[in-house]
């Protein structure tokens, strides 16, 4: 492996994205003595999702001890659950402590990635910058990287102010304004309690209510911070306790079990305790199994809905009009601004960046009916390319960073295999990938996510390309080591075996 050279013709590795996954991968590459790599970041700063989501009340609904890397512990978390600013500070701290910034190329928006079979490397086209070539590529752009306004009829006719939760307008003054919030998911339940403090009126447009559990956010005492800093093993123990606590929750939310009933009882008790009005309580009661959609963690949302200046609207939206929102019963609600807390363009079909693999196959075409990969990381026909938080790696009960850390270590081992062995390519076998996904979908059919509700976990056809059907320990254990027998290994200077191409459905 060569030393880092910013002028190098072909890099050993390129990481696309400087969010949690990209920074974590860079740290682990350096730990493995792989230095000749670069991070391509389209923005002007690190942080990814936590750089972009700065709306009022933005926070993580996973405990801070668990929403962090085990190889980069932070003894100074201020609360059980951290706000977006504190999480972003943690990312910046990692960049500084592990000397990652010199590897980041900001303003590098990757617009095309093509495999060069003859040369055995990937060619990345960058908008307005010189192209980049690399032997291996890590796609660390994440599933929550792209935000856009929802496809609602009449949205372009609205003349007021439009704000997406992931593109917050901090210059807009909400004081005394009439505000609409479209959506009642994880972002909305954090935004609404903040908006009712300043806005004249807030109307929340709900399509379906979610299961909501209390979020007890305690301040971390100074003594505990000192103990964690002086005795890191105590923080490791705390992280382990949080992990196993969340792992047990899988029995209630991943599958329908007697524990599912307990989760639902807790949700209903939380609703009864915080909402006294029977009609409002009925409107906020979910009609699907707990876990089918993402669980909401908040103790502030229900009280906010009952403020004198807040109204819950459950009539479906028919169209946006120049002055506001018209619902299906014919009422037009007029607003100064509309906040769209409608989530992200999750890539469970297609790809956010065009990727062309072997024999001119296009990944977006292959994923048009639903994304598939081997262990969520590698895709047959796209050698030396790896995905973080790829297809079917979503947790429904635990921290995404637990899954991501396992992915990163697997990816670094795979990259080391290519570099140490001076390989032309390592490409996961199609039959291995197919067998893995057949078993995966068989298991998913028995989960709550596939039990009938509509969610961003599923494609329009009901294909689940998002979630992993099991415990976090099961996901982590499958990534303990790279099984070389699952890959077609081609040394440099050796022509790869020719295999019949499987027919690919084009969109």
Tell me, rounded to a whole number, the average pLDDT: 92
Head-to-tail CA distance between termini: 40 Å
Radius of gyration: 24 Å
Shape: globular
Q: Total helix count?
A: 13
Provide the low-confidence segments as ranges: 1-7, 498-507
Main sheet properties: 8 strands, mixed
Percentage of β-strand residues? 15-25%
Helix content: 25-40%
> Which structural class best describes the helix and strand composition?
alpha/beta
What is the β-strand count? 20
EC number: 1.14.13.-
Keywords: Oxidoreductase
GO molecular function, one term: oxidoreductase activity
Enzyme class: oxidoreductase
SSE topology:
Blueprint: E1 11-16, H1 20-31, E2 37-41, H2 49-52, H3 84-97, E3 104-106, E4 110-116, E5 121-126, E6 129-139, E7 161-164, E8 178-182, H4 188-195, E9 201-205, E10 212-213, H5 222-230, H6 232-253, H7 258-274, H8 278-283, E11 296-297, H9 301-305, E12 310-313, E13 317-320, E14 324-327, E15 332-334, E16 337-340, E17 355-356, H10 363-366, E18 385-387, H11 400-420, E19 423-428, H12 430-444, H13 472-477, E20 487-491
Parallel strand pairs: 1-2, 1-6, 2-3, 4-17, 6-18, 7-16, 8-9, 8-16, 9-12, 10-11
Antiparallel strand pairs: 4-5, 5-6, 13-14, 14-15, 19-20
Provide tags for this entry.
20 strands; single chain; disordered N terminus; disordered C terminus; alpha/beta; oxidoreductase; EC 1.14.13.-; five-stranded parallel beta sheet; 13 helices; eight-stranded mixed beta sheet
């Amino acid at each position: 492996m060569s030393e880092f050279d910013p002028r190098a013709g072909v890099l050993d590795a390129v990481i696309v994205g400087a969010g949690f996954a990209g920074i974590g991968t860079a740290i682990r590459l350096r730990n493995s003595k792989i230095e000749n790599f670069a991070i391509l970041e389209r923005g002007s700063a690190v942080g990814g999702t936590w750089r972009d989501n700065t709306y009022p009340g933005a926070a993580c609904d996973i405990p801070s001890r668990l929403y962090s890397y085990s190889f980069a512990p932070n003894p100074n978390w201020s609360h059980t659950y951290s706000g977006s600013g504190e999480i972003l500070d943690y990312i910046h701290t990692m960049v500084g402590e592990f000397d990652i910034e010199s590897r980041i190329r900001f303003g590098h928006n990757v617009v095309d990635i093509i495999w060069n079979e003859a040369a055995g490397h990937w060619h990345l086209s960058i908008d307005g910058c010189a192209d980049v070539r690399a032997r291996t590529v890590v796609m660390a752009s994440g599933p929550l990287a792209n935000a856009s306004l929802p496809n609602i009829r009449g949205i372009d006719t609205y003349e007021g102010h439009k704000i997406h939760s992931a593109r917050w307008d901090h210059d807009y003054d909400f004081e005394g304004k009439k505000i609409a919030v479209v959506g009642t998911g994880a972002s909305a339940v954090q935004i609404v309690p903040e908006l009712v403090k300043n806005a004249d009126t807030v109307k929340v447009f709900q399509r379906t209510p979610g299961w909501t559990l209390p979020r007890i956010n305690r301040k971390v005492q100074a003594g505990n911070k000192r103990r964690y800093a002086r005795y890191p093993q105590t923080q490791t123990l705390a992280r382990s306790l949080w992990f196993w606590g969340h792992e047990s929750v899988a029995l209630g939310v991943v599958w329908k079990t007697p524990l599912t009933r307990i989760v639902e009882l807790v949700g209903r008790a939380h609703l009864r305790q915080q909402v006294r009005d029977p009609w409002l309580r009925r409107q906020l009661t979910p009609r699907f199994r707990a876990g089918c959609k993402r669980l909401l963690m908040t103790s502030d949302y229900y009280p906010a809905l009952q403020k004198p200046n807040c109204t819950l609207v459950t009539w479906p939206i028919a169209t946006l009009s120049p002055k506001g929102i018209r619902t299906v019963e014919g009422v037009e609600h007029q607003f100064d601004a509309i906040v769209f807390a409608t989530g992200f363009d999750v890539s469970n079909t297609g790809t956010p960046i065009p990727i062309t693999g072997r024999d001119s196959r296009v990944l977006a075409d292959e994923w048009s009916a639903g994304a598939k990969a081997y262990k969520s990381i590698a895709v047959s026909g796209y050698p030396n390319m790896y995905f973080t938080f790829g297809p079917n790696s979503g947790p429904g009960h635990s921290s995404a960073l637990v899954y991501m850390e396992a992915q990163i270590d697997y990816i670094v081992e795979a990259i080391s295999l290519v570099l140490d062995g001076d390989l032309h390519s390592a490409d996961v076998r199609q039959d291995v990938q197919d067998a893995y996904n057949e078993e995966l979908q068989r298991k998913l059919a028995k989960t709550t996510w596939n039990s009938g509700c509509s969610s961003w976990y599923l494609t329009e056809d009901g294909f689940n390309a998002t979630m992993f059907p099991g415990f976090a320990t099961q996901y982590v254990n499958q990534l303990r080591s790279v099984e070389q027998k699952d890959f077609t290994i081609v040394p440099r200077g050796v022509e790869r075996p020719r295999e019949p191409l499987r027919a690919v459905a084009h969109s």
